[in-house]
Design a protein that fits this description.
An eleven-stranded antiparallel β-sheet has the order 6-5-4-3-2-1-11-10-9-8-7. Helix content is 20%, strand content 44%. It has a single domain, classed as outer membrane lipoprotein receptor (LolB), chain A (Clam), CATH 2.50.20.10. The longest helix has 21 residues. The N and C termini lie far apart (50 Å). It contains four helices and eleven strands, in the order ααββββββααβββββ. The protein is an alpha+beta fold.
């Protein structure tokens, strides 16, 4: 019964995201507020696969990750650029906002819990600011694999992060895969990021 409930929630979350994409004109009018300047900004494309029992849901689009000290903001958009959600984390907890009139806002202790509540599956939000540049989060248990002098894989906080390709110009990750196995009634997640060339 619990697994059927989560499968329904996963379908409902993807249906809601699909509705946001299809109503792009309406959502664009209710966009999220602009962000303050960031220390680091990473942008690119994402594709996510969530599997639960024999069901699979796919989602893809664009992302912008803005890092400010211990705080970060992750904006998710459809392939056409329509805002889907914003996830913000910091020392005071986490907030997830979906655009609308009025915007839908959820607050909690962790971004992973909020994403699972709103989207039906977790996002690697608590560590992505470090993982996206190919390093584990400091002062938290982690296992790493080295290849050619670079970290090629990280296991931390239940996630496995693999660096699949690097930029030739600076050696930073260009393409990454994030994986988390299914546990309890939560689906298995595979997330791929392809970053835009910062020099482009």
């Amino acid at each position: 019964m619990l697994r059927r409930h989560h499968a329904f929630r996963l379908r409902a979350a993807c249906a809601r995201l699909g509705a946001l994409v299809l109503s792009g004109g309406l959502v664009a009018c209710a966009s999220l507020p602009p962000l303050a300047p960031a220390e680091r900004v990473h942008a690119g494309r994402f594709s996510a696969i969530a599997k639960l029992d024999d069901r699979q849901e796919n989602l893809s689009g664009r992302f912008v990750l803005s890092v400010r000290g211990e705080s970060l903001t992750l904006d998710l958009a459809s392939p056409l650029g329509t805002t889907l959600a914003r996830v913000e984390t910091g020392p005071d907890g986490a907030r997830l906002t979906e655009p609308g009139s009025p915007p839908r806002e959820l607050r909690g202790a962790s971004a992973e819990a909020l994403a699972e509540q709103a989207l039906g599956f977790a996002l690697p939000a608590s560590g992505i600011g470090d993982w996206i540049v190919g390093r584990p989060v400091a002062h938290r248990a982690a296992s790493t694999t080295l290849q050619d002098g670079h970290i090629s894989a990280i296991e931390q906080d239940g996630w496995t992060i693999r660096v699949l390709e690097r930029f030739a110009s600076n050696g930073l990750p260009r393409r990454l895969a994030f994986e988390r196995p299914a546990h309890a009634a939560s689906p298995a997640i595979r997330l791929q990021l392809v970053l835009d060339d910062p020099a482009g």
